[in-house]
Amino acid sequence: MATDYTPPLTCLADLLSLLPQHLERLLRAPISFDCANQARFVLATVLLLYNLELLSAKTTQWRLHIQGARAIIQWKLQAIGLHRPDVADNFLRYEYYFTAVFNGLTTFDATYEVIDDIPINDKIAVFGDFVRIMHCVTRAERINFSGRSTTDTTRVEDVVGEIGTARDRALQLNQIMRFHYPDARHYFEHLTHMYYHASLIYSHRVLADPAASQDLIRASRDAILDHLSHLQDLAYFAHDLVWPLFVCGTECRGFPEKQDTIERALLGVIRLTGSLDRRRVLSFLRMFWQLDCEDGEISSQRGRPLPR
Q1: Which N-terminal stretch is annotated as signal sequence (predicted)?
Q2: pLDDT tens for each residue of 245-276
Q3: Has residue 88 been placed in a domain?
Q4: Cys-Cys with 213: which of 131, 204, 238, 268 at CB 3.0–4.6 Å?
Q5: Which of 106, 180, 178, 109 has its CA nearest to residue 142?
Q6: Domain match, 160 and 281 both
Q7: What is the model's pTM?
């Protein structure tokens, strides 16, 4: 896919024409299996619009479509909750969940709301456990920021244990998954460790005293860079690399060589997958690396959307 790919206007036009048609049928249809299918069509259309707008990188309507996806899922769960979701439903719901959680990681929204009643299926989401943990950490951050009192305190020690369990489970899946290429299993193991260390960094930045956690954070940063050096071919898991690269990149201020490593890897991902939100991530990191601020102040920079 070209680096600066712009989706044909016909694709956007087709999707925009399909959306009101599906919505009209959905509103007119009685609560039934057919209604569930219409809701699925609407959700798929909205998620396609979201991704096409990320590719064009010219509008901010992708936020509106993520909110629309949440509303559709909520309606579907309430209106047709008796119908058991199939694989397609679970895939679309996880696509929404994954996108919403990672948007929350890179932008600070005090009204952070993500539907978390999402089934994590190993065949659909091998890193689903990590995503759910990061959602819990981000939600705890929003609660602390709002000043709301809660009896459900998220302790970093508990989260670290969950992250370790998620890593072990992903490594077990690695042994039974079927890969098309011999090297892919080896690369997946390195990628799993990158998710593990990125999760540790994020959790300690949000939930712990950054000064007391500095040695652990630096060790995890260096571990991510080491595992990255073993990925000779980024094509196997390019889409999955963005988040650990982003988290590692936020710990590379003041280290030009490490910054170059992260930038080269992100540019490699962009060459393989297209821009999507990757250029936005890289632009944010470049800006952050130039800031004169204390370690751990990444949160203050997330008060606004990442530059696109």
Answers
A1: none
A2: 999 999 999 999 999 999 999 999 999 887 66
A3: yes
A4: 204
A5: 109
A6: yes
A7: 0.78
